Dipeptidyl-peptidase 10 (Non-functional) (Cyprinus carpio), 608 residues
Amino acid sequence: LDLQLTNTVLHIQTGNVHFSFCACVCVSREVHELNPPEVSDCVLQFASWGNHSQQLVYIFENNIYYQPDVKSSSLRLTSSGRDGLIFNGITDWLYEEEVLHSSAAHWWSPSGSSLAFLTINDTLVPNMYLPRFTGMLYPRGQQYPYPKAGQMNPEVTLYVISVNGSMHATQLLYPDSLQRRDLYISMVQWVTDECLAVRWLNRPQNSSILTLCYTHTGKCVPKHVMTSDKWIDRQNEKPAFSKDGETFFVTLPLRSGGRESFRHLTMMSEQISMRHLTSGTWEVTEILTYDEKYFLSNEAGFSQRHLYRVSTVDPFHRKCLSCSVFKPHCSFYEASVSPDRQAVLLNCRGPGIPKTTVHLLSNMIGESKHTYTHTNVLHQISLKLELSFPPQFEESKQHPVLLLLDSHPGGQQVNERFRLDWADVLVSCDDVIVARLDGRGSGFQGQQILQDVYQRLGLVETEDQIVNQTVCVCVCVCVCVCVRAQAYGGFLSSILLLSHGSELRCGAAMSPVFDWQLYGTLLLNVTRSENLRFLILHGTADANVHFQHTAELVKLLSMINVNYRSQIFPDEGHDVISRRYTLHSLVSFYKECFADNLSVPMETSDDD
C-alpha cells in the first residue's frame, strides 16, 4: 500500500503548566504509531516535521527523538532530560511564556541536515506550587520551576547536532562578556547550513549581543552589541539576511526629532558597519524579507500598519505598497511574502471588516463605529486617546465611560485594527463610551514613551490615566467612569481606583498583578475607599500571575474597607476557560454600576 502523509500535526493544549500532547495524523489505510524505541502508547510532549521529505522530530520525557521518515526507527538524540529539571528541545515555563514565546526550543537547518536545540537546566530554580482543588477528595498540587525576581534563573545551553552523521552535539559558545547563569537566548535563526544567528541577552535586559555562530567550531562571532540605560525591546526579532549571509538587516533605535528615538531599518555587513535605510518620527514594526527590502511600518500614523519597500542603494527610495489598497476601509495590515518574493499575502485587520488577499509585488502601486481620537500633551509627550461612542450618542445626555487598560507594557490600544469584543456590546446596546489610552509605557511611538516607565511602573501610568479621565469628562457628559484590565493592567486599575483625583467609581481586574513591596505605597496613597465597587476575577491554577497576588490584594482591600467582589475559578489558568460566564459577569457588573450612578442626579451649579 502507498502511504500518503499529510503535513499535519495535531497540537492539543492540556491543562498542564506548559506541556502538550501531540499526535501524527496520516491519510492512509496504514497507521504508524509515533513511539520511542521499546515504548508503546506513550504521551509525547511535542512533535513536528523537519525541512526535508518525511523527517520527524518529537520530544518524550524531555529528550529529543528523530525519525528520517515515518517507516524508520526512532533515534534518540539526547539523554540528559529529567522531568521538571532538564529540558531538551522544548521550553520550561520561563522560556515559553517570557523569552521565546513558544513551546518548541529547536530549529532545523535549511536542508534538514542539522538540528539546533536548547538545553534548559532548572535544577537550581525554585519551584512554584499550584494547588488543584476539584475532582478529588484531598486537594493535590503541581510544582514547576518559576524564577521570581532575585531568584536563580535556569542555565541555558545551545547545541547543534548533525542527523546524518555521528550524532555528536556541538555546543555553541556564549560571548565572554556574559555569565552563563544570568543570560537569555532570545532568538535563534539559521542563516546557512553551517551558520546560525543567535541573540544573547543579559539578565537586566540592557545589553544584547547579536552573533553569528559556526557549527564546525562552535564559535560565536559578535556582529552587533546593543546597550541601554533602561531596557532593550524586540529581542525576538529575526534579522533578514542576504543569500550569501554577508549582509543582514535589523531595526535599531535612531534619534529623530530631538531627543526622541524610533526603531528604523538598518543594514549591516563586513564592508558596511551600519547604514540606516529609514528615518523619521515613526517606526518600522516588522522586517518581512530581503529583495529590495520589504517591511511593515506605522509611518502613515502610529495607529496604522502598512507594507513598504525600500532600496538598499543611496538615496534609499521608500514606497508604500498598501496605502492605496482598499482605502479607507483597510489601514492596519499584516503581511507574508512568498519564498520566491514574487507575491505577498495581505491580511487587512481593520478598521473595516478584516479580509485576506494575495497580490503580485510587481503590480502593487502602492464601516466602523464612530470614534474620536484626541491627543493629550503631558510633560511634552503626546498621548493618544480613543473614544468609541454609541450609535445614538447625544452630547447633552449622560453617558457612562468604560476605560480599558492594556495587560502589559509595550502594547498599543489606539490603532486601526478591527475590533469586535464584549466592550462593543456595551457601546452599541447600553450607550456606554469606551476609552482607550496609549500613555507612557505603550509601544510603537518611539523609545521615550515606551521607556518612560522604567523603574516607575504604576506611577506615571496612573498620572496619565487620571488626565485621561479628566479629558473624558470634558469631551462628553459623563455620569460615571469605570475601568477594566488584566494582569499588569489589573495592577494599574487597583491603584487608579484608590488614587486621589481619580473619577473612577467601579473597577474590574482579571488576574491582577500585586507586588507586596508596593503595599506600603498603595496604603499611603489611599484617600478614597467609600462608594467604590471592585470586581476581582482569578483562576487558582494561573501559572503566569499566581493566585497569591489576588490573596495579597484582597487582604489589603479588606484592611482599607473597600467594597470588593471576587470570582474564583478553581483549577483554571491565566486564560480562563469559562469565558462566556466571565464575560456575562463583567457586563452584569458594569450594568449594575452604571445603573446605580445614573439613578443619582448630576450636581448642578447655582448659575444653572
Notes: The helical segments are 93-99, 422-430, 447-451, 460-475, 488-498, 519-525, 547-559, 579-598.
